[in-house]
Amino acid sequence: MRKSFMCVMGAVLALSSVGAARAQTAAPQTYSYSEDPALSIIAPTLVTLRRDGPKEAVDQVIPPSPGRDKEFRSHILYDFAAHKIYTQVQSDEGMPCSVMDYTSPGAPPEFDVISGAAELMKELTQDGKVTLTPVGAETLNGVPTKIVEAVSPQGKGRIWLSDQGNYPLKVLFIGPDGKEQTVIEVKALSFARPPASAFTPPANCQAIQGEATENSVHTGPPESAKPAFHITAVNLQPIAKYSGACPAHVKLTGNITTDGPGTVWFQFGAGQLGPDQTVKFAAAGTQTVSHVFTFVVDPKYGDDMGGSASFRAVMEDAQGGHTDFGVGSNNQDIAVHCVR
Description:
By secondary structure, the protein is mainly beta. The protein folds into two domains: about 15-200, Clam (outer membrane lipoprotein receptor (LolB), chain A), CATH 2.50.20; about 220-340, Immunoglobulins (Immunoglobulin-like). It is built from one helix and 22 strands. The protein has one helix at about 115-125; strands spanning about 30-35, 45-50, 55-60, 70-80, 85-90, 100, 135-140, 145-150, 155-160, 170-175, 180-190, 205-215, 215-220, 230-235, 240-245, 250-260, 260-270, 275-280, 285-295, 305-315, 325-330, 330-340. Strands 7-8-9-10-11-1-2-3-4-5-6-12-13 form a 13-stranded mixed sheet, covered by helices on one side. Strands 15, 17, 18, 20, 21 and 22 form a six-stranded mixed sheet that branches. A three-stranded antiparallel sheet has the order 14-16-19, with no helix packed on it. The longest helix has 9 residues, at about 115-125. The radius of gyration is 21 Å and the shape is globular.
């Protein structure tokens, strides 16, 4: 199973009920910025993004924290003209760089708040079902912005939109208890051309058959290697809301059904990917599997985090591999509240 699941932007906040974006102008083609924090549900994440025309580089860092003693670092390079995506997990020397076809015209809006501003605002605002109320203006990290606010049963949401371009440069959730949680904040925004060295493809990348888009990945083995039996259903069970001491340890449980014997590889995702695991089927039937994730909430971002968990399984093929992207489950919401 390829380690490239897209982290789904989930119900991290009630800003999914914050209103419509204003009309977006054509996005610039050269820019760079950092995000601290960037969208994530597993732990505070730092992102550095650079774009120059048809090429875009995204670097992610998840620092060590209680429950996770190793820093995670990844580098993704998009070449929109060549329709390629290069992925390298720099914190894991044993994981080779990969390259595969990429058919979307831009990077996922969760990464790129400039080219993906309109799409990101749709996600944050449920296509503008709630009217935004202007509440002020502020120069945010050197950029003039207007602040808009909406109220939902879950709390208040605020978005800082740049005066030029209406890019969402900061997203803040204020819970019913008045505690604030910054979900996105863009810093060091520049529209100068980044250095060409930022877009050099990693060396010795392994070519992967299939294609990726901004919200999905599909790979597949040759027809002759496909397994004799198949997964017929994958289901992720509802996840109980957590409230207690943090780090929070949350168990994800799923069911896998096959139409015959074989080895099934499976993987849970919740902001980051769990390990590849296997379960053996002696005959057709359903088995239950699980994995425990550790969630860390940095106090400077509030006491709450939420999002969406995923679950995917793939039948081992006739060659003993599992390159097909497999069968995905329904997603389930995760909600964590830390009692300090």
